[in-house]
Amino acid sequence: YNLLQTAPFQPTLQARLERLPGVRAVGLYRSGLLDYGERRVLVFAPPRDASPLVPINQLLRGDPRQATARVRAGGWVVLSQALAEEHHLRIGQTFTLPSPDPQTFRVAALSTNLSWEPGAIVMNASDYARAWGSGDATAYAITLAPGIAPVRGAREIERALAEGTGGNRSASAEGPGGRSGAAGAPGDNRFGLAVETAAQHASAQSALSRQALASLTQIATLIPIAAVLAMAAAMGALVWQRRPRLAKLKLEGFARAELWRTILLESLLLVGVGCLVGALFGLYGQQLTDRVLANVVNFPVVHSVTALAGIESLALVSATALAILALPGYIAACVPAAMALQD
After folding, report:
1. Residues 6+ apart with CB under 8 A from 50
2. Collapsing DSSP states into helix, strand and coil, what is residue 80?
């Protein structure tokens, strides 16, 4: 319901959560969508003391340590590279962010789109509150006391919420080795809060990614199946139309088995050449698509040449099409020689 944690609420429970025995600190996490030019970008704003504050493994340009220090100090943001190029921004340059309360920021580093296609911006939560003119949060970032496991801390927070009364909508917590991030979905308490550990939140995001990849995998499976069936149908019709010619070859002394082997060999050559050309163009298209995703969309892409997968697809499609053609080819090879005398 709120996997991106963009539903705002008033953080009236901050002091209450800070008093819990297993809680060391409670920060305010903020995020939201912002129309910036022709893009609807996603703005991430963790608390100043969050670690990591900046997604270091997603930075394309800029020093990670310097960028983190600048964003933590305030007045600096990390922009997606595509967003920076569209507005002709570079590292260190000043620009005005068209937020509800427009503020001036400087570019600390350039990143990928952080899996949000239109682009993303990373700033600290205090700068977000100033730029949006609101103290609302979208999640509580709760750091647990040393020795408190995230699961135990999450249960303690849930019990505290179940005992209180109020009307907020989201919550979150983190432990020494992980964070409980608020999903923003209605929880089983009077505040309507949902508590989850960092592992649970990451698992929910991974599940969504896996669901999307599963759909793409199904599409990728259906395409070669359709291609095999289409080629088999076309070549089967072609072989069937050649029955008079095959009947003449029988009159000339060719045996049925020899005709069948000839049909299979011709089909293999035709299918093999077609699949080879398709595999080469597929590998080229993969590289082209990777470059487009990386340079135009700034999507985090791992560049690789899937030559082995191309060879496997080539062999699989060729063998399957040939196997399907074996039956109509055999039936065509069984054509009586008398058919040649009918023309």
Report:
1. 27, 29, 141
2. strand
Determine the pLDDT at residue 191.
67
Q: Is 54 helix (H, G, I), strand (E, B) or coil?
A: coil
Q: Give the global pTM.
A: 0.67
Annotate 202-244 with DSSP letters as a single string.
HHHHHHHHHHHHHHHHHHHHHHHHHHHHHHHHHHHHHHHHTHH
The full DSSP string for 124-193 is -HHHHHHHHT---BSEEEEEEPTT--HHHHHHHHHHHHHH---------EEETTEEE----S--SSTT--
Beta bridge partners, 130, equal none
Residue 108's H or E segment, with its range, is strand 103-111
Which two three-digit tokens encode residue 272?
């093999």
Pairing of the two strands 103-111 and 178-180: unpaired
Q: Give CA–CA dist 283/286, Å, rounded.
A: 5
Element (H, E) at 289: helix 256-295
Evaluate the CA torsion angle 143, 148, 150, 151 in order and state its sign.
negative
| Structure tokens, 129 | 């509150």
- Distance, in Å, from the CA atom of 263 to the CA atom of 269, rounded to the nearest integer, reads 10
Residue 61, helix vs strand vs coil: strand
Q: Each residue of 170-194: pLDDT tens digit?
A: 455 454 444 444 333 345 566 677 8
